[in-house]
Specification:
- By secondary structure, the chain is an alpha/beta fold.
- The protein folds into 2 domains: 45 residues, no CATH class; 246 residues, no CATH class.
- It is 44% helix and 16% strand.
- The chain has a 9-stranded mixed sheet. Strands 1-2 form a two-stranded parallel sheet.
- α4 packs across α10, α6 packs across α7 and α8 packs across α9.
- It is globular and about 60 Å long.
Length: 308
Amino acid sequence: MILDEIQNSPGLFPVLRGLVDRPGQTARFLILGSASPHILRQASETLAGRVECIELSGFDLSETGSDALNSLWLRGGFPRSFLAHSDEDSFAWREGFVRTYLERDIPQLGFRIPSTAMRRFWSMLAHYHGQTWNASELSRSMGLSDKTIRNYLDILTGTFMVRQLQPWFENLGKRQVKAPKIYFRDSGLLHHLLDIPTRHHLLGHPKLCASWEGFALEEVIRAFQPSQPYFWSTHSGAELDLVFMHKGKRLGFEFKFTEAPRLTASMRTAMADLRLDQLWVVYPGQHRFPRDQGVNAIPLSQMALRGL
């Protein structure tokens, strides 16, 4: 049985629990609906031990193929945006999506926030893509309290528009960054809010490298599905874009928009201080090659399609 838009009938959760608990029950239930934190919490509480939550994202490289990498990066993974007949049609669809999300979806999820205020915050947040979260700086720019700005961010995170990548902590005797980094989970929405309609505009934009970093980061996370991804950064300047445990190994990733990624001092520091089993430099090229002991450069298409 497939139940769509479950957020419109939250009273069904206790009924489903009774049906699932019937002796000899062989039916299976597929529940689809919004990303409302309230609904997710209710499902987890009411159907504890009886439900598996699966997060559905847009298209990724494993579905579109490596030939579509540039189009997927520019337009994002929403099907109607990616499959549009032209970049102009894709851009127009994303504008409609943003307006619908702000004017209809957010209020339906129970959040009473003016759409103009959220649109302004969302647009400003696009300029912080790939950077460490700084609530005070944004709150001053918008004339709102830190608490209100944090609430706006949590709404975008809870509805899977934004990822708050948490910092990796270890007792290394170094001052480490403890605030999360902010990434747009769909590169197409990032480009729309930055007013980047075509690849030509993207390649000349100041956020080019940050855009590539976020796009590649999401592809790697989808490919490996770590229980908890992190970034690592110290106040002395050493940093690593992504680190997580995978099959008992500690893996690190750097994302570089260059045809010839080189070994940096930060990579050497991360390898030594974090005791990484492997560090991968993900770039948009075609060939895989070593950079140092335990450090290899790998095209994003190879990692997303065939793994390591």
